[in-house]
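Worked problem 6 (solution included).
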Amino acid sequence: MSLPLILMLDGGSPPVAGLEEALTLRSLAVKRVRVPEAKALLESGFRPALVVLDGPEPGSEAWSLVDAMAKEGPGPPVVLLCLRAGGPTPAGIRAVLDCGRAPEELAEALQACLPEGAGRESGTLEGLLDELGRGVLPPADPFDFFGSSSDSSHRGKSDFTLSGIPGVEDPFDWPGRDPGLATPLPPEPVPPGVLEEYGNYFLLERIGLGGMAEVFKAQQRGVEGFQKIVAIKRILPHCSDNPDFVRMFIDEAKLAAQLTHPNIVQIFDLGRVGDSYYIAMEYVNGWDLRSLLRKAGELGSPFPEEVAAFVVMRVAAALDHAHRKRGFDDRELKLVHRDISPQNVILAAEGAVKLVDFGIAKAASKAGHTHSGALKGKILYMSPEQAMGQPLDNRSDLYSLGLLLFELLTGQRCFFAESELAVLEKVRQGRIQDLQTLNPTVSKELVAIVNRALQKDVDHRYPSARFMERDLREALGRQGRILTEHDVAEYLQALLGGSREVLRTFVATRFPAAPPAPVSPPPALLSPSRGTPVLLLEPEPPAAEPAPLPPPDQRPRWLLPVILALAAALIAVLTLAGGS
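Solution. The predicted structure is:
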């Protein structure tokens, strides 16, 4: 038997993306036709279950056809899809739907507009009995929606077969029937190991949980057995009713979807299933830096300097792309991530570096949406101005990136105190620990880069991520080694799969440490314009000490005879004066 058919009249506007697929998933057949073809079908006596008028202009051929259908008398219900509700509509319109809504919502609304019984699932005995009870006979072929003949009077019970009913063999089927007319396969069964069927995805494993959303490894389904492994970030149920959380979630998807960079996790889709919003994004098979730092701490070995510089260099490249991104109107977004931290940097098993989670990122156009006095981000990785609730620009992200590099090189967080309030006070004052005291083997180039990134005065920091990336790349080059993702992957294997001795042997072999450099103030780095040097640190001047006198053996030899001669002359003058 035939599926409930929706005849979609092409009004000249672009079709709603995903609508036909959403209708098909609801066991509704869709036929998109132009006006001449639709006229011929309706004149032949064909009656669809529903007619959808897709975005026509007033006075167009599709508009006139619907007006003519209304004048002829009762017919199939007609639904109008348009961008703006409240405008003129043709006669006989049952409903007007906004085509800007999600495809799943439109499909549900269109199904609700079907006549009673037309929405029953095709191919079931219940649907068959319903059609027979209403005196509706299917066409000669269960899936020939329009029939091979325009005269419906030739159809009769002898044309009816049971091929459309699952599990029932058709006694009237004939040999040599075209296999292309066979019934579609039943819905794909849920494979074992699936946590949940969620829209067009199978949720396979929960890989992350935060205060606002949870992240799943998922399998996307498609036509002809298409499959793709993705990550689904789904807003938590208790946040679905909070408009602020929902808006933040949607803003994250809209902002991150505009970023296309090899070191930023790609966003594929923003959707909704029921009342739950989700983001479909690139799945990265790897580990976040927080987990890797914890493992390195357990083995008592910080990241090798080369690996740390390579990772941060790639994150700087991602930030440079985000900071310089222009919107659809070709104006700078002035995007600030605001949450650069180990949890939001992922290293893939192949060594790729990915920046994730733009959940609290802000563009200049969205800056006014943040509540005054609200601190968003992780305190341990905030810049001083972020911790004080001041306006932020791209240099705040670079301060956070400097803290990340500090932790990779030392294995310790830059700020440590007994309470969060004490940590917050240290962050606001910008009181950082001395890097070389914690790890004397770090090269002076890396020390200078960290110190410049961690300047409390934003004008003394790197002006953009591009310059920080450049200095990291040059520092790696001066060490005579060009690192690749393959080297990072090998380090991850040694870190996660080996013992402390295996890791130390690997690091000593592949990344031999330079001898400790003398602790001295880092050199001044030139500004981007190569003008006046910028002093990286502001140490207190040491107390002045008096210059020691030269030792006696270093005094001039002619000094003593001269003094004796002068003394003799003085005595002679005094003697003569006394005699006179």
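Discussion: Confidence is low (pLDDT under 50) at residues 119-168, 367-374, 522-554.
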